[in-house]
Each structure stands twice: as structure tokens, then as C-alpha cells.
């Protein structure tokens, strides 16, 4: 007896949005956060999937940074949950962790990029990139080798020994990207990563950021005011007064 072979069986794609084939990398439910009388988050729920880039947009004060910080375990929400599914460490609700435990999760599972790269000026580029590995216990020569490979993947080969002040703004942001993904994080959070760059450099840096995260099956969350940056992502979440009021699917 023969068994028919289904001709349209689903095949998970190695990169690109995996909303239909994979479990979320990060799930938030009913997140609230107040600062005194100010409601910064009013009950946000969302799922972030492996291999997708999600932009978060909204007016100043709408809660974008607060959301990013709750998702990344920088702060604890007042209520609600943030569940991380890290293939190497399993599922974990970050909202129940204390500050030290959240710091450990951030180091092993997340990468961060800010508007100004927050690179250490007294270290060389390769030393900056190697930092998350050194803090995680990798020995110096292995960390330096991985950091150099990360830099090369971002077009920074030959600049390893430069101090941060000897690099252009775009090169500095690519060093920040290399540092954010050198430890292979599950989710990379970027807060206005191109905010300090001209538009041509911004396009270049955003392409490098997508290539080193989404295109490698990781999740990227980008807070941005720039519609051009948001337009390169797979989804855009629009925040207003601490709520996701609209979601756009771009791909
Ligand atoms: N540490 C804090 N103490 C008091 N209020 C805060 C604090 N952090 C944020 N807020 C308030 O919470 C609200 C949301 O702030 P948040 O920084 O998340 O907004 P945002 O959308 O990121 O703004 P922006 O685009 O200006 O960075 C704002 O009203 C802000 O003033």
C-alpha cells in the first residue's frame, strides 16, 4: 500500500517572518506601567516571532521606551507577563524576576543598540564588541576571535584596533550592532538606532542591522520615529497613550 505524499506540506523557512510556523520568541500579555499619576503602558499584549523585525512607532510620550524596557527586562511592569522562549535556556517569565536575575537574562538572551552607540571610548572597536562575551565568561582570545568575525560580517574588517573616536558615525553604529549580536541573542532591541545618522548612512546601518538579526532567524525590535526605518521592518506597532492602537503588516 502506498501513502500519498502531500504536495503542499508546510516548510518552515530558515529566515524571514515565521509567524505561522514558530512559537513566539517573546510574548507580552496585559502589560501595565505607571509612573506616579502617568499611565505609561495601559495593557499591552504582543507576540514577537523568530525571524521578524518589528518597528514600534508613536508620538513622544506614547510609551515606546517603557514598552521596550519592559520587554527587555530593563524594568518590571506593574502587572502582566513577558515570557521569553530562548532555545538554549527554555521558557521564562521575566516579570517575576528580581533586578539581578533580569540582568542575567539580558546578558545571555538579548542585545541592545541605542541612538548613540554607548560604546566605550577607551577601548578599541574589537574590545567593545567582545564585551558581552567577556562578561558572559568566554576567555579573551575566543571572545576576540568571535568579535573580529562579527565585525567582518558587518564590513568592519581592518578597523578592529581603532578607538571609537577614530570611526565615523555609521561605523560606530555598525560596531554597536556587532556588539549587540556577538553573543547570538534571541532578541535585539534597538532604540532609535539611526537617529543620529544622515539618511544614506541610516539606510546602510538599518540594512546591516536587519542582515545580522532578522535574516539570521533572530527577532529585532526597533523603536523609531523614522517611517523609512519602520518601512524596512515586517510589522509596525503604533502606540498611543500606552496602548497599541494599530498594527501594520508590511510583508
Ligand atoms: N522614569 C520615569 N518617571 C516618570 N515618568 C516617566 C518615566 N519614564 C517615562 N515616564 C512617562 O511615561 C510616559 C511614557 O514615556 P516613554 O519614555 O515610554 O515614551 P516614548 O514614547 O518613548 O517617548 P519619546 O519618543 O519622547 O522617547 C511619558 O508620559 C513619560 O513622561
TrEMBL record:
It holds the Pfam family ABC_tran. Residues 26-250 form the ABC transporter domain. SUPFAM superfamilies: P-loop containing nucleoside triphosphate hydrolases. This is Putative ABC transport system ATP-binding protein. PANTHER family: ABC TRANSPORTER RELATED, IMPORT ATP-BINDING PROTEIN. GO terms for molecular function: ATP binding; ATP hydrolysis activity; transmembrane transporter activity. It comes from Ornithinimicrobium humiphilum. One of its GO terms (cellular component) is plasma membrane. Keywords: ATP-binding, Nucleotide-binding, Transport. Residues 1-23 are annotated as: Disordered.
